[in-house]
Amino acid sequence: MNKIVYEDTHIQVIHSPGAGKSVVITFGDMFYLANGSTFFAEAPAKKLNLSAIGFMAKTRNWYPQESVRKAIVKIADILAQSDFRVVYGGSMGGYAALKFSRLLGADRVYSLVPQFSIAPNEICDHRYNSYFNENSNIDNAITYQDLAGDIYITHDPVFHLDHQHVDKISRLGYPITLIPLRFSIHGATTILASTSFFDAIICGDRISKRNLLCIFKERKRVSRSYIEGLAEYLSHKKPRTALRLISNSIANGLIVDNARIRNTISICLKKHHLNTGSIEEFEYLLALGVKRSHSDLNVDRPALKTAHNTILAYDSITREIIQTTIDWTRQLVFLHPLSINEGSGLLSITGDTGTSILVTRNNEVRTVIEGSEYHATNYIVYRKNNDYYTISSATKHLSAMSNGKCAFSVEHVRAWEKFYPASFSSTLQHF
Questions:
Q1: How confident is the model over 70-89, as a mean pLDDT?
Q2: pLDDT at 300
Q3: Among candidate residues 66, 82, 96, 92, the one with its CA nearest the CA of residue 24
Q4: What is the per-residue pLDDT for 407?
Q5: Over 60: is that where the pLDDT of 320 sits?
């Protein structure tokens, strides 16, 4: 039965009794936070009847040292009853597994995709720097003195954002065994979430790298996260291969339609056009129910030009409004240029299935066939204001940002929220 053995404002520590003298100490990642009852890797630990201690953060706080030190004092008696201690975690938890390995008296540490630090003055990583707190994350970087036991780290060496962290950890000089999981991007924790992997890393004998590589190979075959990550990686260099991988994996039920897959397909088709001058993979679009635009643009309705001299279009693969050029909308059938009539109205597109109204739903822009029954209120509306137009959904205006992104994110209209009518012919000449 699980029991909370320590708790403060930052962390919660749960003890789950088991058989034997070994204990596994786990740290949850930034997406699996304390809930008062469960802990990271609880399922395989209980399946193997292991004594386990689960450290769980209450927020994405990277386990403040003062809290962890106090918790370790509280669990000293439990630790004293063990003769072999395995510390395990992924990402934020992988960082903590390394950072507190000496304090925990670790005999073995297995860290998946860890961070070296989240302090902006230590490393530049936009994913985590914003979580750094000068008060709770003092001396955040991992040091040689923090480390203990036989240490194993698994990450994707091709994925630069993670590799920079592992490289800094490796350069500390402590002996570390690296067992790479290529093309997994940051998904190693999800890919290796299995009892077979857990059993292999907590066994009393020395870890067999060969055995782990066999487990990696088997997990990659069935892991949705790995297939999505590999397709994402291939999309930038071998788009045709990425599209074949996606198509076969969807056909075999290994992956399903989601935002990540749609974004990869969109990238592939854009890369395809740049490399070959033609797009032949329309079956990928049809399989996902993607609306295709007409090849002939309606020159009677103006396009909407942004403050950055781009035009607005709807990407029916990724289901988002983007900034692009008329040239691209003429050549990529899944890009629908946004066009308007005089005055105000509902934003719509015209595709191979007729006219569809655009609405926002679950952080995506979806299409509703004109005339069909629709009861929600999150229509996308365009309004004329003197010489410019605004586009809004609910209480937010569409902002065309300088980084090329578009989002319904502001309440007050500024330059980036003002869109100007331009004929398709003049816009085409401009670009």
A1: 96
A2: 57
A3: 82
A4: 95
A5: yes
Query: What radius of gyration do the chain's Cα atoms show?
Result: 26
What residue ranges define each of the domains in the chain, with the CATH number in brackets? 3-221 (3.40.50.1820), 226-287 (no CATH), 303-430 (2.80.10.50)
Per residue in 56-67, pLDDT tens? Answer: 999 999 999 999
Distance of CA 264 to the CA centre of its chain: 13
Strands (DSSP E) found in 97-171: 108-112, 150-154
Report the C-alpha dihedral over residues 334, 335, 338, 339, rounded to 10 degrees: -80
Whether 280 shows a pLDDT value over 90: the answer reads: no
CA 169, 173, 174, 175 torsion-angle sign: positive
d(C-alpha 105, C-alpha 100), whole Å: 9
| pLDDT recorded at residue 430 | 37
Residue reference for tokens 């045709």: 240
Cα angle vertex 17, ends 45, 80, to 5°?
A: 105
Scanning 107-175, the segments in alpha helix (DSSP H) are 160-170
Torsion (CA) 182, 188, 193, 197 in degrees, nearest 10: 50
What is the pTM (predicted TM-score) of this model?
0.77
